[in-house]
């Protein structure tokens, strides 16, 4: 631009037109100033230079008359402004400047040829323009070519970088594979002798030792377990980082799993003088699918850390429901402690590998800092998340939440008592020359028909038994030191058509995470571990030999699945004449994974008991046709006549006074729960009668002593206000909050219960009014109707309706006949109020 200005100024001098000199000098100075002053802001500098040059050209045009049409000049300037300014404001400013120049040219004094006629010097003018524009284009071309070369260089560099990156990635992948193979080999080489050490220490601890020797053996055993745990943690971390870890998704009962998991931290806390508490909310579904082995690992890590860093106080495990959908449930686990706490700075990186809260912790408490990192990776692999909150010297909360798939109803429930033990022949072998006494003692206690032999002779023994028409039904393989022989024999059995029909059970003293799945792949039917309970082994053999199990493609049996099967086989009968009550109790019980059946009166209950085997009966006391007292007496008489085991019967009624409890005991009932039923109390009561504890409350005679019971102050709850309307604390029409809390804030279930109540309540009210009108007056019938309405109202927290029914029941008990009109109007009013509030 400067060169063009100089050339045009020279053209003016050559033509003796001095009017070009001053504008040219001014233009050059302004361009120089723009280049130097505005150099830190190149965009503004470029725009300023272009505007200066445009003004100079306008001045030149005005002096030469080179553009006779101002409109053409305006069009050129607008295009220049469009190129110069990509923003709207700058473009509008350019348009305003061009409009001002257009007006100046059109109305100003400079029209015509002007001071210089370019036609006389058109050759020189064209040379100047061609040279200036050509030079500019040449410079742009050179710059474009340099940019192309630079881009080509960048492309070549990028390709080289990609080739290098690919090579580095391949090298890294090879290094990872080499590391994985190394870790796998080292893990195998370390685990084999470690399993041998643990197995032999097991044998040593089973022998007769004095106190000093036992203490030394315990120290060796704990040290070996700690070393094996570190090896497992490092291998787990390596597998997760390599993306090669696989989740073992299986059905499980959350309640059974948690009870088993917490047995270790409960012992650890007790040994340290701490209190350990665990709680599973009643609305948490029990029958789920997931990798419970990994969940166990995370919970034990969190609880172990909590106990380790807590000197006094409490460690609590809470399991709550975060979100509930038709097929999935989001379960929240949290471990709270009253320990030393963690600072906020350390808390941020606590889930990174090899990180602990303080450098002195490793020295004082031990550990590698891997547990939390591995736990986080496991939970994220399951689609969940993990976190921690803490206040120094107050305590910490470590939590995680995981989505689980719900189990579908209708899965096989095996009656574990259906197969007789004395008809089953078992062969027991071990990785030692003979099975240990700890296995044979269990087999003797059960009463199995079993044989033992050395492991090298087992196939010959089985073939001989098959030819003599006395075949074995199952093989029990004991692992004391190494499971390599068990794996090898399992492969032989699965490949031999004559042997693969046998049920193979492994009982190990040195098991580790993932073993159950590996043995399942080898064809084993059950995976158990020491210490071994006789009931567990008996149930395992019955299960794997059952036709239902053999015909199905079910997964390997473990002690967890056996407990779940027992729970699923535990059948409960609910006896109540009100559908609302039945539906409520049924929902509570079914959610825990138990089977339920129901009838509407005592007569039907007696018939059901004669045709079916039940493990527990919930019996309403006041029902039509036959009440609960008479039904219980007839059930006890039938059991005595047929020499059957006593089925526990739980009284379930709104009457919680001492005389009612005594009547229940006299009728042969075993326990008592009041209405409205509290979910937590109901579940605790069922757990007291489930297998494992039912023997402690079994009764030899119908008129046994009833245990002391907590009836939750129902007598206090049922005091009747003198005047419902004028009471200082008004009774709510509908306690919506309390109602939802009873049902775990499950609005869908609550709505279903309410709908059932609405279908029954009008008939209950009509029955009550009819009983008041009945001639001659029958106080017992009226009391029964009032009691039924009271129980139904209590079940849905219809407080005014419940207390009104209770008032009538109490008056009738005092042989006072209520006023017909008052009862009818009062019940109608209370029912209408409840309908209005509950249906909102």
Folded structure, characterized:
With 840 residues, the chain is an alpha/beta fold. It contains 31 helices and 17 strands. The chain has five domains: 2-116, no CATH class; 250-406, Heat Shock Protein 90; 421-566, 3-Layer(aba) Sandwich (Rossmann fold), CATH 3.40.50; 569-717, Response regulator (Rossmann fold), CATH 3.40.50; 736-838, HPT domain (Four Helix Bundle (Hemerythrin (Met), subunit A), Up-down Bundle), CATH 1.20.120.160. The protein starts with a helix and ends with a helix. Strands 1, 2, 3, 4, 5, 6 and 7 form a seven-stranded mixed beta sheet that branches. It has a five-stranded parallel beta sheet with strand order 9-8-10-11-12, sandwiched between helices. The longest helix has 85 residues, at 122-206. Residues 68-72, 362-366, 412-416 and 692-728 have low confidence and may be disordered. The chain is flat and about 145 Å long.
